[in-house]
Specification:
By secondary structure, the chain is an alpha+beta fold. The chain has 14 helices and eight strands. The longest helix has 36 residues.
Amino acid sequence: MVDHQRSRYVGGAEGAPPLPPAGGYHGARRAPAGLDAAAGLAPASGDVVFTAATEGKKTSNAIGLVAIIAAGLFTIALLLLMGAGGTDALYGVSMLVVQLVVVGLIVAALLTPRGRMLGAIALAVTLVFNVATVGAMGALRSAATQAYDGTKSEQQRHEQAYPGVEGTSNYDVLNGPSLEQVQSEGDELMAQVRERVSERFGYTWVQAGSVDVSPERNGYGGESMLKRYTSTTWTTEQPVQDNDRKREIMQVVDEVLLERGMWELYALNEPGSGISDDMVAKLYGSADVDRQHTWEHYSDTYPEPLRFYVTTYDLSKDPTGEFHTEREAVAQQTGEPLEGVQLMILARQVLPEKDRAAFEEKLREYPGF
């Protein structure tokens, strides 16, 4: 007896696998959509495994993109604030909250396989540019340029532009010697001292360094129109190592000072000069004057601003050689002799003649100063 139902499945198959029944076998799963596409078949509605994986990868990649964009925008905002002088705003609550949000996005990206690379890049950017690092750069920049405008009120900015110096009488400045007069008087004083010392002891002198004129700070965070003046130096070409000869030279200098109506030299290197013996030894090589490698004497024209310094360097009183090394460095920079008697003029808070009219005009904006 022929089984017609069976022959319907195998008839004409010629050994090939039987065709599935209409609608497929019960409980069978379709192949991934990629295989269907290769066979020219449209994906069936039951292909949920591939679709879910694709959506998960897209979401992970999107988190990475959001993290790196947020890190980039946050970095730009920090740099703009620093450039605008808003160092104080960098440490505000708002910026700290924004930074926490950015960190949260970066952590989320690092926890996803597809977003890990972008999250790592965002993390590297944030480690370099964050509230702490950019704030520190802004503080250093402000300190170097004295640009603290971002943290100052209008009153403070007004004070910062004050042309004088806090605690200094502008009346005394305007009625005292100008920068040019101080320079001329100082040059004349040093010339007289050089001439008198050379006559008595036969020393010759060499000029070194250059005149330095720099602005004084005004005491309110800015620069004043008053200047600090430092002359060139004049040093004997011959060493002076005998202590008695040093004292004789100081006596000759005193003669010139008294003739000009100035005070006699005051020894800054001697104990009892106003600083402790330990500090005297640190500055001048010893608390014992006769064993010091440096003698420093001073006079001035108080209440006028000119200050006159006479410094004697003696390398024979340098047993360790440390002072010799220091002097070599200075000599290499300025061209002055390593040792000998040196003259120098210093003046503080002096006004150049060319700035006098502008100084008086500016003072009208500060009636209470």
